[in-house]
């Protein structure tokens, strides 16, 4: 379970943290640690380096690392992801990788992009399942439109993160 509160208390570097988890899972693949860091870096604009301390990562970096760790090292067949969109993560990349994994992923979300990209949605209320909805053709089209807007917003976010000025050309460019 990866929640919004992703605090790590171990004062280890990323590489040690992942190696310990892989060893505990009896994973012998020597590339699993570097593969996990590489995957985490696909999810975040703030790159994670193996020598960084886990405790110094931002919320988005930590969430990206924990998602990559759950996908590649974790033994659980089911992963619960709580509000991944709140951490500035590249959620489209996360969703694409998850679709190609053998794990069952349950998202807790208020994000319409994530909600509409899922095959089934459980509508909750007062701690109970109120409805189960299956994705339909209209939702697939709506998701496609929202994904395009989300890509545009991601480009602007990454330009802001890099310290660039947002210009008229960037705002008006056709991203198709």
Please tag this protein with its features.
2 domains, about 180 residues, globular, alpha+beta, Rossmann fold
Describe the model.
This protein is globular. The chain is built from 7 helices and 4 strands; from the N terminus they run H-H-H-E-H-E-H-E-E-H-H. The relative contact order is 0.11. The chain has helices spanning 14-24, 32-43, 59-72, 91-99, 112-117, 137-161, 168-172, and strands at 78-82, 104-108, 120-125, 128-134. The strands form 2 sheets. Strands 1-2 form a two-stranded parallel ribbon. Strands 3-4 form a two-stranded antiparallel ribbon. Helices cover 47% and strands 13% of the residues. The chain has 2 domains: 1-109, Rossmann fold (3-Layer(aba) Sandwich), CATH 3.40.50; 111-176, no CATH class. The chain is of the alpha+beta class.
Would you kindly provide a brief summary of this structure?
By secondary structure, the chain is of the alpha+beta class.
Strand order of the largest sheet: 1-2
Structural class assignment = alpha+beta
Number of helices: 7
Order of helices and strands: HHHEHEHEEHH
Helix content: 40-55%
- What is the first-to-last residue Cα distance? 35 Å
Please, what is the CATH homologous superfamily of the largest domain?
A: P-loop containing nucleotide triphosphate hydrolases
Mean pLDDT: 86
Largest sheet: 2 strands, parallel
Write down the Rg. 18 Å
Report the CATH architecture of the largest domain: 3-Layer(aba) Sandwich
From the 3D structure, determine the CATH topology of the largest domain: Rossmann fold
- Poorly predicted spans: none
% residues in beta strands: 5-15%
Number of domains: 2
* CATH class group of the largest domain: Alpha Beta
What is the subunit arrangement here? single chain
């Amino acid at each position: 379970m990866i929640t919004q509160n992703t605090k790590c208390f171990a004062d280890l570097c990323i590489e040690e943290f992942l190696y310990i988890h892989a060893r505990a899972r009896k994973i012998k693949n020597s590339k699993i640690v570097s593969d996990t860091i590489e995957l985490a870096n696909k999810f975040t604009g703030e790159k994670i380096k193996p020598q960084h301390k886990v405790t110094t990562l931002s919320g988005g970096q930590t969430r990206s690392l924990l998602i990559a760790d759950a996908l590649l090292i974790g033994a659980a067949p089911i992963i619960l992801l709580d509000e991944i969109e709140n951490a500035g993560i590249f959620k489209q990349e996360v969703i694409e990788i998850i679709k190609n994994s053998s794990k069952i992923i349950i998202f807790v979300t208020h994000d319409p992009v994530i909600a509409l990209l899922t095959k089934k949605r459980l509508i909750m209320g007062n701690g109970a399942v109120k409805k189960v909805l299956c994705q339909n053709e209209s939702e697939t089209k709506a998701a496609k439109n929202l994904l395009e807007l989300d890509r545009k917003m991601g480009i602007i976010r990454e330009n802001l993160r890099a310290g660039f000025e947002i210009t008229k050309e960037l705002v008006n460019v056709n991203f198709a």
